Amino acid sequence: MCLAAAVLGAERPACAQSTTPSAEAQTLRVDYSAPAGCGSRTTFVAELEARTRRVHVVDTTEPVATVSVELTDHTSVIVGQLRLREPDGTETLRAVSGRTCEEVVPALALIAAVLIDPEAVTHGSTLPTTSPAPAPSSAVTPPPAGLGARWRARPSLGMGISATSTVAPNPSFAPSLELGLEADVGLARGPLLLLAFERFGSSTFSTPAGLADFSTLLGRLSLCPLRWPSRGPVAVAPCGAFEAGSLHVGVSQTIDKSEPTVLWLAAGAGLHLDVHPLRVLGIELDLLGIFPLVRDHFYFSPDSPVFSVPVFGWTGRVGMKALWP
Hints:
The structure is a single chain. The chain is mainly β and about 325 residues long. It folds into two domains: about 25-140, Rossmann fold (3-Layer(aba) Sandwich), CATH 3.40.50; about 150-325, Porin, CATH 2.40.160.20. It has helices at about 40-50, 100-115, and strands at about 5, 10-15, 25-35, 55, 65-75, 80-85, 90-100, 150-165, 170-185, 190-200, 205, 210-225, 235-250, 260-280, 280-290, 295-300, 305-310, 315-325. Strands 8-9-10-12-13-14-15-18 form an eight-stranded antiparallel β-barrel. Helix 1 (about 40-50) crosses helix 2 (about 100-115). It is rod-shaped and about 100 Å long. The model is unreliable at about 1-20 and about 125-150 (pLDDT under 50).
């Protein structure tokens, strides 16, 4: 109630009654999904409530507004998606990326706060500079990889062991050193380039005319233009390969002591499998079909053949690699 005071015969109000109603809090359910160690539902709710008082988070199955948060590790970046689903079925989707979960979780909380309360206060929190928050006026989806996407190259260094059926009468094994260059297109995987160096050796091959030891030193260049799926810890890629090097035969217990060294050229195609348990660590597996381009024949005498380079063979490799972050 407002009292009136008389001043020179006129009345004026001595006080004014406030007409601004208090804003009501919106009841909200929060679903949270993320890799182990990448924040939690409790952390996200705390970040959200720190930015606006107009939310009331509940655990209920009743038809209330729902915020679904999903974080995924895409090797080089953490990608977070936020989906706001209204009780009438209307959905709004937002996406943001950053180098760490500690960047992305507060950014998603800010986005949710602004969607619910456009006057939400950030309290000093900012979005990662890698992906600013979209305007809250319309729903968006994560940008697809394309001509406008940002390309990024990540070098790698790997060690492993290889086996092949193409360079000796018996299966041959080799330590393998591999240099790699992985391309990311936006948030998706791009082409992969690999350069491996291997020195194969096999068990001694015995004939009545003498003993033969085969060794091969080669380099293999592999190009994998596509990797599927484009995101996630596991990827499979079809690859084409080219090999160049030398094949040497050492002999003993024979009359003819000549030890030939010949050119090795081959082409191949196969699959490359990548598993990334950590952002900077990868486990890889290669399986290639090899087609030798130079097919030499080795023998002690016309009656004592030793080995003929086959028309087709296989090469497999397993190894581990470290990647640039």
